[in-house]
Amino acid sequence: MQNEPLAYRMRPRSIDEVAGQEHIIGTGTALYRMIKNGHVPSMLLYGRPGIGKTSLAHAIAGTSGLPFIALNATTSGKKDVEQVVGEARMTGKVILFLDEIHRFNKLQQDALLPHVENGSIVLIGATTENPFHDVNPAIRSRCGEILQMKPLDEQDIRQLIRRALDDPDRGLGRMDIRISDGQIGRLAEGSGGDARKALTMLESAVMASDDEGGVTTVEDPILDSLIGRSGVFGDKKGSHFYNLLSALQKSVRGSDADAAVFYLAHLLESGDLIAVCRRLLVMAYEDIGLANPEVGAHVLAATQAAERLGMPEARIPLSVAVIEMCLSEKSNSAYKAFDSAAARIHAGSTGEIPSHLKDAHYAGAAALGHTGYQYPHDTPIGEFGGWVAQQYLPDPVKDEAFYKPVVSGKEKKMAGIHRKLKEYSHKK
Predict the structure, then answer these.
(1) What range(s) does the AAA+ ATPase domain occupy (predicted)?
(2) What global pTM score does this model have?
(3) Which residues 6+ apart lie within 8 Å of 361 measured at CB?
């Protein structure tokens, strides 16, 4: 057993040994009480890698005493599922832990789902993807619990590290290891809430340290090296990546420059520059819009520069663009106007284009009644340019107001012009 990785050896043996996840498996939760009373429901565990999904499944099996079988949906076939079904028939009930369950194919489902439904197989599925987007409805409907797991906080990680240092059977307790509270804290902080990463870094630090007279002393330079190359979590094109994009946009929309730069850094470290640039361009027009139209051009220039430069230099123009958007006036009136107009079109309220707006650049147009258009440039109005009062919308929607100005930044002037023109139109 000592040849297995420390993170594997230190998996909890029962639900009472699970670190963190109090919202799911704390002593007062319904799931904790069900399992303690001998009932294990089928469930989906959703969360980022290293968060403890596999460990929780092992802990549930350890507490319930039911036979436990682990499969990975990316490598298992119908034959593997049939073996699980056969085991369930022999023993009466088994727990099947299925990792990467969002990759479950139809043949596997067809073989397994009836047995999940009748209760002979308790399915514990794990996924890093949003189960409401990526897990088949047939599986979701048979899992009574869809549980979103959270990253462990530093205190939980500290507890796991100390448990590994003290445990003489599964952990490092047989070794005389000198490691300070500060160093344990650095490991906990550098793990990013990932228990597996924390224990892997601890084991690597111990194995890389000198043993003098039976005493192993962990040194700071070794920790610096391990934490520095441990990386960041960024499941490119996965749920967490899109959550980061969402957090970036909402931070910009909320004008929080610190949060926006933080999420930008996380996204760029995760490694999809093109997707980040695309989202920044969307934000420039969706959230800044008419309040500061120049921002769109600024962000386009920044994203083009970033794509040409590549990382790490791309961070420079993109950080400028993000902070400018954060601190700019904001308006979503333009695309809201479009969405409102599109909704009327989908509802069938299109009507007939007014005759004076129809194409008249051909012989016979007058005979069809395509006349009466007044050329606005022939009627100057102050410093605005040309304008004339005439109907542009079809009759069924002629009184609709799709554009509702936001009095913000440069749109404030546009809103005043819009209001005045509406007043002139009503006086005609």
Answers:
(1) 39-153
(2) 0.59
(3) none
